[in-house]
Design goal:
Elements lengths: L1 H25 L4 E6 L4 H11 L7 H4 L2 H5 L10 E8 L14 E2 L8 H20 L5 E4 L7 H7 L4 E2 L5 E2 L7 E8 L18 H5 L17 H4 L9 H7 L2 E3 L3 H4 L18 H5 L3 H4 L3 H6 L2 H7 L9 H16 L5 H8 L4 H16 L4
Parallel strand pairs: 3-8
Antiparallel strand pairs: 1-2, 2-7, 4-7, 5-6
């Protein structure tokens, strides 16, 4: 009798998990899986990662470490997580017409928090009807003490690559993750094996050597950290390696074989979510001259409801000044000089650095 009851419970847990995942897919997400909320080998490593200082100035990551390590402590009764993925890749960039100022693929459209969170909360609102009882839940899209990538791997959405991104064998890695934690006991999905093998493309391509070892990112050396999260001066040894990036970096994903155009599949966008993530016209091919001429009001208008706000006005101009120093384009000198003579000490220092690079790079 006990075995029969256990089998029924297992079948019911699996059926409920299927209904919850189906609701997420119906609302426009490209992948949905379930993971138990528990301590894992990967989450336990997080405390060591913080101890090494790899998080840099992202102090929020050092808060609530216990909840990140053991997500069952997120709230009383938390048992399982629905993990969803939404592809953000847009049409391939033509390197022959590469813009003067590059931004990460995800950042040129509407803020992904706004795009995803409402749909994820809609799934949460549906849980009571799906489960037939009151349900406690919380939704997270890069917004709380949750290790989304770890949960995604345990939910079968892919494996964590050597570049620390989750990789799906069909979708690649250009996707956002969201987590819906609840007190439901949902049947978990099986993990996807690691398919990176001996490949080192991402590790070898990183311009700042931000990976001290496979699967471990030293954020303090990562361009996505220095151009977005860092509020002060970008360390001089990293400036030349920044190249033309002014917000984030895609290099370790761009070189990944799983992201090759021939291999990666982009699902239909029936719900219109991906369309909202597509880059706005001004961010398709931004020029350094335009960025260096922006004032704060123009920046506020150009970045309205976009993830680009994260870098702040000073951060984006600081990044553009470094890219200008790396560009070898002496026509930018008047715009750089304006910042060198301005009242913002941070921008002035980066402008002087840029001018020095251009002076050392004689015109052809």
């Amino acid at each position: 009798m006990g075995g029969h009851t256990s089998a029924m419970e297992s079948s019911e847990r699996a059926a409920l998990a299927r209904r919850v995942k189906a609701a997420a897919l119906a609302l426009g997400f490209d992948r949905a899986g379930v993971a138990r909320l528990a301590v894992t080998r990967e989450s336990a490593f997080f405390g060591k990662w913080i101890g090494r200082g790899h998080h840099g100035e992202m102090a929020y990551l050092a808060r609530n470490v216990a909840a990140r390590v053991d997500p069952s402590t997120l709230f009383e009764g938390a048992r399982s997580a629905l993990v969803v993925a939404l592809v953000y890749a847009h049409p391939e960039r033509d390197e022959r017409s590469r813009p003067q100022a590059r931004i990460a693929r995800y950042a040129g459209g509407d803020d992904y928090h706004d795009v995803m969170l409402g749909r994820l909360r809609a799934v949460g609102d549906a849980l009571e009807a799906l489960a037939g009882r009151a349900v406690r839940w919380r939704a997270y899209v890069d917004t709380g003490p949750v290790l989304e990538r770890v949960l995604a791997a345990h939910a079968g959405l892919g494996w964590i690559g050597k570049n620390s991104c989750v990789i799906d064998a069909e979708l690649g890695s250009y996707f956002f993750l969201g987590v819906l934690a609840s007190d439901l006991d949902l049947a978990p999905d099986e993990r996807e094996p690691d398919h990176c093998g001996t490949c080192r493309a991402c590790l070898d391509a990183c311009p700042t050597d931000a990976f001290p070892e496979p699967h471990v990112l030293d954020a303090t050396r990562c361009l996505s950290y220095t151009t977005i999260e860092l509020r002060g001066a970008i360390p001089e040894p990293l400036r030349a390696a920044q190249g033309d990036w002014v917000f984030g970096c895609d290099i370790c994903q761009d070189v990944c074989p799983w992201n090759s155009r021939s291999r990666r599949a982009i699902p239909p966008d029936a719900a219109g979510l991906r369309a909202r993530l597509a880059p706005r016209p001004e961010w398709v091919a931004p020029t350094l001259a335009w960025l260096l001429a922006l004032d704060e009001d123009a920046w506020r208008s150009a970045t309205r409801r976009s993830a680009l706000r994260r870098a702040k006005f000073r951060g984006l101009v600081r990044n553009a000044l470094i890219a200008a120093g790396n560009a070898g384009d002496r026509s930018l000198i008047p715009l750089i000089e304006r910042h060198a003579q301005g009242g913002d000490a941070l921008l002035a220092e980066h402008a002087r650095w840029a001018l020095a690079q251009l002076a050392a790079d004689p015109p052809e």
